[in-house]
Amino acid sequence: MLETKVPGAAAFAKFMTVLQAVADAPQPPTAASLARSCGYPRPTVYRIVAALAEQGMVAETGGAYRLGPRLMSLASRAWSQFDLRAALAPDLQALRDETGETVHLAVPAGLEMTYIDKLESPGPVRMASRVGASVALHSSAVGKAYLAALDAAARERLLHDLPLTARMPGTVTSLPELRALLDLAATRGYATDDEENEPGIVCYGVALCDAAGRPVAGVSVSTLLFRRRDDPQAAYIEPLLRLRDAAAAKLAVLPVSPGGA
């Protein structure tokens, strides 16, 4: 085992070794067989599998262990996001090429949206966003588009818990004002971020819905204010709406809806 200075890494490595042994076993292993295959004392393995079971990472049946429901749920979400990125890759590329601006693909994660793909603008100035980063629902174009596409009850549940933090002077922090903006976004099919997260950056976003009409992701086009086109409707919004409509058929056949509020 590699030495590490990260606190807790050695203990975590033992947990992962046991979990991997459960996954690799041809038949659900017992704690005794896990101790033999992993080379750990039985009391150590018993403590590890008990902790893993408590967290839903493994499940015990008749003294043997198999992968648990929480781990399977995490795996299915990861595969769904991978499928989503792969399915939309040509459309995102075409959107970036047509607009000449940075394109983001994001999925809901609690009270935020998380970027799972980013296509950089070919221009000389790059944005600081990255895959894996999160943006607030109330201040981002993808977040507001996602909220606007939810049914009324689901939207209100999220709005009730949202911390309406002022990230920039223009960030909307009033719930009635945010509701009005979401109603407008729902009517016209897209949302905007007008320097609400970062100075000098304007974004346009749409929600992508599954076969049941539930929003599962968002796509945005982000441009620098100084180079924004004179006609944003034609330059950014119409290409986004075309992508949204084209993506509907692809999302309808994905096995599991990614993300979730």
UniProtKB/TrEMBL annotation:
Residues 9-69 form the HTH iclR-type domain. The keyword Iron does not apply. Residues 70-256 form the IclR-ED domain. It comes from the Bacteria. The keyword Transcription applies. One of its GO terms (molecular function) is DNA-binding transcription factor activity. SMART domains: HTH_ICLR (SM00346). Keywords: DNA-binding, Transcription, Transcription regulation. It holds the Pfam family HTH_IclR. GO terms for biological process: negative regulation of DNA-templated transcription. PANTHER family: HELIX-TURN-HELIX TRANSCRIPTIONAL REGULATOR, ICLR FAMILY, HTH-TYPE TRANSCRIPTIONAL REPRESSOR ALLR. This is Bacterial transcriptional regulator family protein 5. It comes from Achromobacter xylosoxidans (strain A8).
